Amino acid sequence: MERNTLYRWIAQQLIERISSGNLKPGDRLPGEYQLAKDFHVGRSTIRDALRLLQESEHIEVRNGVGSFVAAPRRAIANPLTLLTSIGTMIEASGFKASAHIEWVRHQQPEAAWSQKLCLNPGEAVVVMGRKRFAGRRCVSFAVNIFSESLVGKKMDQGFEGSIFHYLEENWNISPQYAITRIHAMNKELPWDAMANEILQEPAIMLEQLHYDQNYYPVFLSRNYVQTDFVALQLIQKRVD
User: Fold this and answer.
1) Are 98 and 133 in contact (CB under 8 A)?
2) Which of 59, 201, 212, 222 could be disulfide-bonded to 53 (CB atoms 3.0-4.6 Å)?
3) pTM for the full model?
């Protein structure tokens, strides 16, 4: 695994420890030396992972003392530098995460879907509409699109938890990165109008094309998130 991917993976592993309760607010993280030993990497890779966690407010760093799990936030922070499921993101922010699949459909793809997912001519897709909740509040609605040749009819039965974990457990597919485009909602468009009716709050759409460990497109998603409850963060580095 390349270094610029490795430190993001380590950051994700630490986020999952926080969301699972293995690391609780106020807990001190192991030091850089111990983390480097645990993950079998250099300390510079650990520093980059901890920097991402600090920037996304999952941890706070106290100079001369160490790194500590941050207290739950009133709003959900979504660091766009990390590829993480929204359920993990919700729980890492101190809320109880849950999901409800509204529907699963088999249909012919839109032209843009065929191109982005590298579908064969005539290949159908499986489209899933899914709500995500923080406590009792619906904070996100996603339209996820998979090639039918990849998932077949298995998703018709529904599932619990993360799509990432579901793909790993059932097809040994591990989404590793995504190309994300941020769009304002246009209520004149069918998908945007549907999401607006469900969320009933100001929202934007993140169009994400997810790639697996072999850099092949796995699924496309239109993630609509409430902007008054989900804080989107993007860290940019200056390049002269």
Assistant:
1) yes
2) 59
3) 0.69
